[in-house]
Write a structure and sequence with these properties.
The chain has helices spanning 13-16, 42-49, 60-73, 97-101, 123-129, 158-165, 173-189, 204-214, 232-246, 291-296, and strands spanning 2-4, 7-10, 35-40, 80-85, 109-113, 118-121, 142-145, 151-156, 192-200, 220-227, 253-260. It is of the alpha/beta class. Strand 1 and strand 2 form a beta hairpin. Helix 2 (42-49) packs across helix 7 and helix 7 packs across helix 8 (204-214). The protein is globular and about 80 Å long.
Protein backbone atom coordinates (compact mmCIF):
# COMPACT_ATOMS: atom_id res chain seq x y z
CA UNK A 1 0.00 0.00 0.00
CA UNK A 2 1.40 3.40 -1.02
CA UNK A 3 0.35 6.46 1.00
CA UNK A 4 1.01 10.07 0.08
CA UNK A 5 -0.10 13.08 2.13
CA UNK A 6 -2.38 10.90 4.24
CA UNK A 7 -4.15 9.29 1.28
CA UNK A 8 -3.86 5.80 -0.23
CA UNK A 9 -2.75 6.25 -3.84
CA UNK A 10 -1.85 2.67 -4.80
CA UNK A 11 -2.19 -0.93 -3.58
CA UNK A 12 -0.76 -4.32 -4.52
CA UNK A 13 1.85 -4.44 -7.29
CA UNK A 14 1.13 -0.83 -8.23
CA UNK A 15 2.39 0.16 -4.78
CA UNK A 16 5.35 -2.26 -4.67
CA UNK A 17 6.90 -1.04 -7.91
CA UNK A 18 6.90 2.63 -6.96
CA UNK A 19 9.58 4.37 -4.92
CA UNK A 20 8.86 5.62 -1.40
CA UNK A 21 10.57 7.77 1.20
CA UNK A 22 9.80 5.25 3.95
CA UNK A 23 8.95 1.55 3.98
CA UNK A 24 7.13 0.00 6.95
CA UNK A 25 7.09 -3.79 7.21
CA UNK A 26 4.09 -4.87 9.28
CA UNK A 27 5.50 -8.35 9.76
CA UNK A 28 2.70 -10.59 10.99
CA UNK A 29 0.40 -7.65 11.73
CA UNK A 30 -2.25 -6.41 9.35
CA UNK A 31 -3.70 -3.12 8.21
CA UNK A 32 -7.43 -2.42 8.24
CA UNK A 33 -9.77 0.58 7.97
CA UNK A 34 -10.36 2.49 11.18
CA UNK A 35 -13.63 2.42 13.09
CA UNK A 36 -16.32 5.08 13.29
CA UNK A 37 -18.72 5.65 16.19
CA UNK A 38 -22.12 6.51 14.75
CA UNK A 39 -23.78 7.62 18.01
CA UNK A 40 -21.60 9.09 20.73
CA UNK A 41 -21.37 11.70 23.48
CA UNK A 42 -17.64 12.54 23.58
CA UNK A 43 -17.94 15.71 25.65
CA UNK A 44 -20.12 13.97 28.23
CA UNK A 45 -17.53 11.19 28.41
CA UNK A 46 -14.70 13.66 28.89
CA UNK A 47 -16.62 15.56 31.55
CA UNK A 48 -17.46 12.40 33.46
CA UNK A 49 -13.84 11.24 33.30
CA UNK A 50 -12.95 14.25 35.44
CA UNK A 51 -15.07 12.77 38.25
CA UNK A 52 -15.45 9.27 39.72
CA UNK A 53 -15.28 6.69 36.94
CA UNK A 54 -17.97 4.10 37.57
CA UNK A 55 -18.11 2.56 34.09
CA UNK A 56 -18.44 -1.19 34.13
CA UNK A 57 -18.84 -1.54 37.89
CA UNK A 58 -21.10 -4.43 38.76
CA UNK A 59 -22.86 -3.46 41.99
CA UNK A 60 -23.74 -0.53 44.24
CA UNK A 61 -20.89 -1.26 46.65
CA UNK A 62 -18.30 -0.92 43.88
CA UNK A 63 -19.83 2.39 42.78
CA UNK A 64 -19.86 3.65 46.37
CA UNK A 65 -16.17 2.79 46.72
CA UNK A 66 -15.28 4.67 43.51
CA UNK A 67 -17.16 7.73 44.77
CA UNK A 68 -15.50 7.47 48.19
CA UNK A 69 -12.00 7.32 46.68
CA UNK A 70 -12.69 10.33 44.46
CA UNK A 71 -14.25 12.34 47.29
CA UNK A 72 -11.30 11.72 49.60
CA UNK A 73 -8.80 12.63 46.87
CA UNK A 74 -10.71 15.80 45.90
CA UNK A 75 -11.95 17.42 49.14
CA UNK A 76 -12.27 20.88 47.54
CA UNK A 77 -14.45 19.78 44.60
CA UNK A 78 -17.83 21.42 45.33
CA UNK A 79 -19.91 19.07 43.16
CA UNK A 80 -18.94 15.46 42.50
CA UNK A 81 -20.13 14.61 38.99
CA UNK A 82 -19.18 11.37 37.24
CA UNK A 83 -20.36 8.39 35.25
CA UNK A 84 -21.39 6.27 33.70
CA UNK A 85 -23.10 3.59 35.76
CA UNK A 86 -25.21 0.74 34.39
CA UNK A 87 -28.79 1.17 35.63
CA UNK A 88 -29.60 -2.48 34.96
CA UNK A 89 -27.50 -3.68 37.91
CA UNK A 90 -30.54 -3.20 40.15
CA UNK A 91 -34.13 -4.17 39.42
CA UNK A 92 -36.15 -1.27 38.07
CA UNK A 93 -33.13 1.04 37.86
CA UNK A 94 -34.28 3.36 40.68
CA UNK A 95 -31.11 4.11 42.63
CA UNK A 96 -31.47 5.49 46.15
CA UNK A 97 -29.99 8.83 47.25
CA UNK A 98 -29.30 7.30 50.66
CA UNK A 99 -26.77 4.91 49.11
CA UNK A 100 -24.69 7.90 48.02
CA UNK A 101 -25.37 9.70 51.33
CA UNK A 102 -23.55 6.85 53.08
CA UNK A 103 -20.38 7.93 51.25
CA UNK A 104 -20.83 11.69 50.70
CA UNK A 105 -23.46 13.76 52.47
CA UNK A 106 -21.85 17.21 52.75
CA UNK A 107 -21.82 18.11 49.04
CA UNK A 108 -23.89 17.15 46.00
CA UNK A 109 -23.13 14.00 44.02
CA UNK A 110 -24.48 13.40 40.51
CA UNK A 111 -23.79 10.22 38.55
CA UNK A 112 -24.88 9.78 34.95
CA UNK A 113 -26.10 6.42 33.68
CA UNK A 114 -24.61 4.94 30.52
CA UNK A 115 -27.72 5.76 28.49
CA UNK A 116 -27.50 9.46 29.44
CA UNK A 117 -31.25 9.43 29.99
CA UNK A 118 -30.90 8.90 33.76
CA UNK A 119 -29.02 10.44 36.69
CA UNK A 120 -28.58 9.26 40.27
CA UNK A 121 -28.05 11.93 42.94
CA UNK A 122 -27.57 12.15 46.70
CA UNK A 123 -29.81 13.96 49.17
CA UNK A 124 -27.62 17.09 49.19
CA UNK A 125 -28.23 17.54 45.45
CA UNK A 126 -31.98 17.15 45.99
CA UNK A 127 -31.83 19.65 48.85
CA UNK A 128 -29.94 22.29 46.84
CA UNK A 129 -32.40 21.92 43.97
CA UNK A 130 -35.35 22.15 46.34
CA UNK A 131 -36.85 18.88 45.11
CA UNK A 132 -39.40 17.51 47.57
CA UNK A 133 -42.57 15.45 47.54
CA UNK A 134 -44.36 18.63 46.44
CA UNK A 135 -42.20 18.95 43.29
CA UNK A 136 -44.13 17.88 40.21
CA UNK A 137 -42.50 15.98 37.37
CA UNK A 138 -41.43 18.37 34.60
CA UNK A 139 -42.96 17.93 31.15
CA UNK A 140 -40.93 15.23 29.38
CA UNK A 141 -39.09 14.13 32.54
CA UNK A 142 -39.68 12.09 35.69
CA UNK A 143 -38.57 11.92 39.31
CA UNK A 144 -38.47 8.47 40.91
CA UNK A 145 -40.32 8.51 44.22
CA UNK A 146 -40.69 6.54 47.42
CA UNK A 147 -44.03 5.20 48.58
CA UNK A 148 -44.70 8.47 50.43
CA UNK A 149 -44.06 10.57 47.30
CA UNK A 150 -40.67 11.92 48.36
CA UNK A 151 -37.87 11.89 45.75
CA UNK A 152 -35.82 8.70 45.79
CA UNK A 153 -32.68 9.95 44.05
CA UNK A 154 -33.15 8.93 40.39
CA UNK A 155 -34.25 11.39 37.71
CA UNK A 156 -34.94 10.65 34.07
CA UNK A 157 -34.62 12.73 30.89
CA UNK A 158 -32.97 16.16 30.41
CA UNK A 159 -35.98 18.15 31.62
CA UNK A 160 -35.63 16.45 35.02
CA UNK A 161 -31.82 16.63 35.01
CA UNK A 162 -32.08 20.40 34.68
CA UNK A 163 -33.81 20.63 38.06
CA UNK A 164 -30.48 19.50 39.55
CA UNK A 165 -27.79 20.48 37.07
CA UNK A 166 -28.94 24.09 36.72
CA UNK A 167 -27.41 24.55 40.19
CA UNK A 168 -24.09 22.84 39.38
CA UNK A 169 -20.92 24.69 38.30
CA UNK A 170 -21.06 25.61 34.64
CA UNK A 171 -18.69 23.99 32.17
CA UNK A 172 -16.39 26.38 30.32
CA UNK A 173 -15.11 26.20 26.76
CA UNK A 174 -11.68 25.43 28.19
CA UNK A 175 -12.92 22.52 30.31
CA UNK A 176 -14.94 21.13 27.40
CA UNK A 177 -11.90 21.35 25.11
CA UNK A 178 -10.08 19.20 27.67
CA UNK A 179 -13.03 16.80 27.57
CA UNK A 180 -12.84 16.63 23.77
CA UNK A 181 -9.09 16.03 23.91
CA UNK A 182 -9.57 13.19 26.42
CA UNK A 183 -12.32 11.59 24.30
CA UNK A 184 -10.18 11.78 21.15
CA UNK A 185 -7.26 10.12 22.94
CA UNK A 186 -9.49 7.28 24.10
CA UNK A 187 -10.95 6.87 20.62
CA UNK A 188 -7.57 6.71 18.92
CA UNK A 189 -6.40 4.04 21.38
CA UNK A 190 -9.26 1.90 20.08
CA UNK A 191 -8.74 2.66 16.39
CA UNK A 192 -11.71 5.06 16.08
CA UNK A 193 -11.02 8.02 13.81
CA UNK A 194 -14.57 9.33 13.27
CA UNK A 195 -17.50 9.92 15.62
CA UNK A 196 -20.96 11.45 15.60
CA UNK A 197 -21.64 13.60 18.68
CA UNK A 198 -25.38 13.19 18.91
CA UNK A 199 -26.20 15.74 21.61
CA UNK A 200 -24.81 19.26 21.57
CA UNK A 201 -26.09 21.46 24.36
CA UNK A 202 -25.36 25.17 24.71
CA UNK A 203 -21.63 25.92 24.60
CA UNK A 204 -20.56 22.55 23.20
CA UNK A 205 -20.33 23.72 19.57
CA UNK A 206 -18.10 26.58 20.65
CA UNK A 207 -15.87 24.03 22.42
CA UNK A 208 -15.57 21.96 19.23
CA UNK A 209 -14.73 25.10 17.29
CA UNK A 210 -12.00 25.96 19.78
CA UNK A 211 -10.72 22.36 19.73
CA UNK A 212 -10.46 22.14 15.95
CA UNK A 213 -8.63 25.49 15.89
CA UNK A 214 -6.18 24.44 18.62
CA UNK A 215 -5.54 20.97 17.22
CA UNK A 216 -7.06 19.21 20.24
CA UNK A 217 -9.74 17.64 18.04
CA UNK A 218 -7.71 14.80 16.56
CA UNK A 219 -10.48 12.74 14.93
CA UNK A 220 -13.15 13.64 12.40
CA UNK A 221 -16.48 14.61 13.92
CA UNK A 222 -20.10 15.11 12.95
CA UNK A 223 -21.90 17.30 15.48
CA UNK A 224 -25.66 17.42 16.05
CA UNK A 225 -27.24 20.52 17.58
CA UNK A 226 -29.89 19.60 20.16
CA UNK A 227 -33.30 21.10 19.40
CA UNK A 228 -35.53 21.49 22.45
CA UNK A 229 -39.27 22.20 22.48
CA UNK A 230 -40.05 25.79 23.37
CA UNK A 231 -36.48 26.92 22.65
CA UNK A 232 -35.60 25.90 19.10
CA UNK A 233 -36.96 29.02 17.37
CA UNK A 234 -34.90 31.47 19.43
CA UNK A 235 -31.77 29.34 18.86
CA UNK A 236 -32.05 29.15 15.06
CA UNK A 237 -29.99 32.24 14.25
CA UNK A 238 -27.24 31.21 16.67
CA UNK A 239 -27.05 27.72 15.15
CA UNK A 240 -26.92 29.18 11.63
CA UNK A 241 -24.07 31.45 12.70
CA UNK A 242 -22.15 28.52 14.24
CA UNK A 243 -22.63 26.42 11.10
CA UNK A 244 -20.96 29.17 9.06
CA UNK A 245 -18.08 29.39 11.56
CA UNK A 246 -17.36 25.68 11.03
CA UNK A 247 -17.26 26.05 7.24
CA UNK A 248 -13.45 26.54 7.05
CA UNK A 249 -13.03 23.28 8.98
CA UNK A 250 -15.59 21.18 7.09
CA UNK A 251 -12.97 18.59 6.11
CA UNK A 252 -12.78 17.61 9.79
CA UNK A 253 -16.07 18.74 11.30
CA UNK A 254 -19.52 18.42 9.76
CA UNK A 255 -21.83 20.83 11.59
CA UNK A 256 -25.10 20.41 9.73
CA UNK A 257 -27.05 17.91 11.84
CA UNK A 258 -29.85 18.48 14.35
CA UNK A 259 -30.87 16.15 17.19
CA UNK A 260 -34.57 15.85 18.04
CA UNK A 261 -35.10 13.94 21.26
CA UNK A 262 -38.65 12.82 20.58
CA UNK A 263 -39.20 10.65 23.64
CA UNK A 264 -37.36 8.83 26.38
CA UNK A 265 -35.37 5.60 26.08
CA UNK A 266 -36.18 1.94 26.62
CA UNK A 267 -33.10 1.60 28.83
CA UNK A 268 -34.53 4.12 31.30
CA UNK A 269 -38.13 2.92 30.97
CA UNK A 270 -39.25 6.23 29.46
CA UNK A 271 -39.56 5.45 25.72
CA UNK A 272 -43.02 6.36 24.41
CA UNK A 273 -44.92 3.14 23.63
CA UNK A 274 -48.33 2.33 22.18
CA UNK A 275 -49.10 0.12 25.17
CA UNK A 276 -48.35 0.60 28.89
CA UNK A 277 -45.19 -0.96 30.35
CA UNK A 278 -45.75 -4.39 31.89
CA UNK A 279 -44.08 -3.31 35.13
CA UNK A 280 -45.72 0.15 35.18
CA UNK A 281 -49.45 -0.22 34.48
CA UNK A 282 -50.94 2.97 33.18
CA UNK A 283 -47.58 4.40 32.07
CA UNK A 284 -46.68 4.37 28.37
CA UNK A 285 -43.51 6.48 28.46
CA UNK A 286 -42.66 10.14 27.97
CA UNK A 287 -43.12 12.27 24.87
CA UNK A 288 -40.71 15.19 24.95
CA UNK A 289 -42.24 16.97 21.95
CA UNK A 290 -45.87 17.50 21.07
CA UNK A 291 -46.52 16.46 17.48
CA UNK A 292 -47.49 19.91 16.17
CA UNK A 293 -44.34 21.61 17.46
CA UNK A 294 -42.11 18.75 16.32
CA UNK A 295 -43.51 18.92 12.78
CA UNK A 296 -43.09 22.70 12.78
CA UNK A 297 -39.47 22.40 13.90
Amino acid sequence: MLIEDGRIIAVGDDALYQSADEVIDLGESFLMPSFGDGHAHPIFAGREAAGPKVNGLQNVNEIQEAVRIFAQANPETPWIIGGAYEAAIISGGDFDAHWLDEIVSDRPVVLHAVDHHTIWVNSKALEIAGITSATTDPAGGSIARRADGSPKGTLREPEAFALILDYSPKNSIESDVRAIKYACQQYLKSGVTYANDSWLEEGMAEAYLAAVKSGDLTIDMNISFLANPGEWKKNLSKIESLVSEFEPYKEQVNAKSVKFLGDGALSSGTAALLQPYDDQPGFSGLKIWEDAELFAA
